[in-house]
Amino acid sequence: MLRAVLTHPTPAELLAFLREHVHAGGVTLHLAGELEVMYAGRAASMAEAGDRFVIVKADGSLQVHGPRGVKPVNWQPRTDFLQADLEDGCVLLHAERRSPAEVVRVRVLSCALVSALTLTDDALFLLQGTEAQMQEALARHPEVIEPGLTVLDRELLVGVGGLDLYARDAQGRYVIVELKRGKAGHEAVHQLSRYVGAVQPQVPGVVRGILAAPDITTPALRALEAAGLEFRRIEALPQVQEEALQPLLFQ
Q1: CB neighbour class for 178 (10 Å; exposed up to 12, middle 13-18, buried from 19)
Q2: Which of 173, 176, 250 is CA-nearest to residue 212?
């Protein structure tokens, strides 16, 4: 798991370490130290110098955490460009993505520790309960999938099968939601695409298709995006209270 680690590296040593491991493939980087964080994109922000912790995962996603709370100070869900340079005697980690255009720049004023890890997790993650229970929970709480979503029907039959959830979004567009308890693959994408294709000629406006699952394979995600469909990661289901049975007339 542990590939390499440095404690209190000089800027030159840290730069060499990052350049060696950033694009090594399958490597997760951890860096702890005194950092400045600058963000530019849909807004602009700057976190002044403070003790922070940076995680760069193997998929290129980046998170900067402070000493408290679970939410990152800054993050990039994915990066199209990731590079380490030396600027004014400090290592600068530059993370950029193109759509939407966003940049996160992390200036390392001092580094206490940096490590490179190879993490593998091939275990199948399944949401607790059956797909019917998943459908019931999300039908009652569709805001878990998307705020403003209203469920119109469940198991609605169309020519090619039954829709898990038939809904409308906050803008009034029809939405078809396909649910999977485990990691979604090509078959789920194909199924959702057929459902959208069957419903689209029957209603006005654009019909959206959402695949909701705890995870999705990379090829399936590419196929989903190419088909103009969407993915929502569902990692936990809301609790659904069982409806009380109607009391008997005579007890």
Answers
A1: buried
A2: 176
| Per-residue tens of pLDDT for the chain, all 251 residues | 889 999 999 999 999 999 999 887 789 999 999 999 999 887 788 888 999 999 999 888 899 999 988 889 888 887 889 999 999 999 999 999 888 888 999 999 999 999 999 887 655 555 666 788 889 999 999 999 999 999 999 989 988 889 999 999 999 999 999 999 888 999 999 999 999 999 999 999 999 999 999 999 999 999 999 999 999 998 888 775 554 444 444 44
Please give the Cα distance from 165 to 183 (Å, whole number): 19
How many whole angstroms separate alpha carbon 105 and alpha carbon 96?
9
Q: Residues, the chain, total?
A: 251
Q: Give the residues across from 232 on adjacent strands.
A: 212
pTM of the complete model beyond 0.70? no
To which residue do tokens 């936990």 refer?
236
Which amino acid is it at 152? L
